[in-house]
Amino acid sequence: MRTLIIIPAYNEELTIGSVVALARKYGDVLVVDDGSSDRTSEIAQKAGAVLIRHDSNRGKGAALGTGFEYALSKNYDVVVTMDGDGQHNPDEIPLILEPIVRGEADLVIGSRYLNGSRKKIPLYRRIGLWVLNKGTQMAAEVNVDSQSGFRAITRRALRTLNLNSTDYSIETDMVVKARDAGIRIAEVPINVRYDVPKRHKKNPLSHGLGVLASIVGLIGYRRPLLLFSLLSLISFVVAGVLAYWALEPYYAGGNVYLTQAIGAGIFTIIGIQLFIGGLMLNVLAKMVRE
Predict the structure, then answer these.
(1) Same domain for 181 and 47
(2) Cβ–Cβ < 8 Å for 185, 161
(3) When comparing pLDDT for 259 and 21, which is higher?
(4) What mean pLDDT comes out for the span 161-178?
(5) Can you tell me the distance from the alpha carbon of 44 to that of 50, in angstroms, rounded to the nearest whole number?
(6) 228 and 105, same structural domain?
(7) Which of 173, 189, 222 is the C-terminal boundary of a domain?
(8) For 170, phi and psi rounded to 5 degrees?
(9) Which residues neighbour 277 within 8 Å (Cβ) at sequence distance 6 or greater?
(10) Each residue of 41-87: pLDDT tens digit?
């Protein structure tokens, strides 16, 4: 199997050389420098990688998209993606490839949850990953480590998917579209390091919210009744709280709080409209898919 290892990189001069050197043992290496302002490109080339450089920072999804186009144009059989910051161990590439070699899967995800390494994940990341993984599970009905960037995909599967995400939502986008296309997905256990330099390229909160917004959009597109039912339930809960607040003094012999009572009515109407909207969109989504 001709294997291409794609490493998207942004200001990774401290780690990219060693990552490339170790990865080259298992296939050709392509580094997509996504507009770095340091010596990432120079060091990657000296370490033996093929280099493609973006003039500006366009996002991880865009960098991977450039790598995928290169892989397809050069007729590679399988593509491995991994981070350039040293979090992933290149010596685990054969482990990632094993289900593909055995013909058991077309998309393999390196999971932090299969060998107990989740305990090493910082608490704030663990909480964020749980939210994003559950959101992806709702969108794609598959329970995997959806945010892992260490994965392998066959040429056939890559050609099937229309991956157009330009940011960190690329991992979720790949899982959802692979599930839609009936592509076989497998997971293997991996180890991840969190003591690497420059581990935060973006603010973790804004990064997580951005990915979550993309996931919510996918849920709304694929399973609108589920999304709108959840929003409707939230509206009804708020309405219930306001109604209790409004009526509490009445049962104690006082007057009803008019403002809270009006608010309860408004949120009840919103909840009903959301549920009806979800039903209508669910019918339309089924018609489009069929």
Answers:
(1) yes
(2) no
(3) 21
(4) 82
(5) 8
(6) no
(7) 222
(8) -55, -40
(9) 228
(10) 999 999 999 999 999 999 899 999 999 999 999 999 999 999 999 99
Q: What size, in residues, is the chain?
A: 290
Q: Count the domains in the chain.
A: 2
Q: pTM surpassing 0.85? A: no
Task: Please write the tens of the pLDDT for every residue from 113-128.
Answer: 887 665 666 666 667 6
Token readout for 263 is: 């608010």
Contact 169, 61 (CB under 8 A): yes
CB 98 within 8 A of CB 3: no
Q: Copy the structure tokens of residue 121.
A: 């994940």
Closest CA relative to residue 149, chosen from 95, 115, 112, 106: 112
Token duo for residue 137: 């599970």
Domain that holds residue 120: 3-222
Residues 215 and 229 occupy one common structural domain: no
Boundary residue ending a domain (207, 222, 237): 222
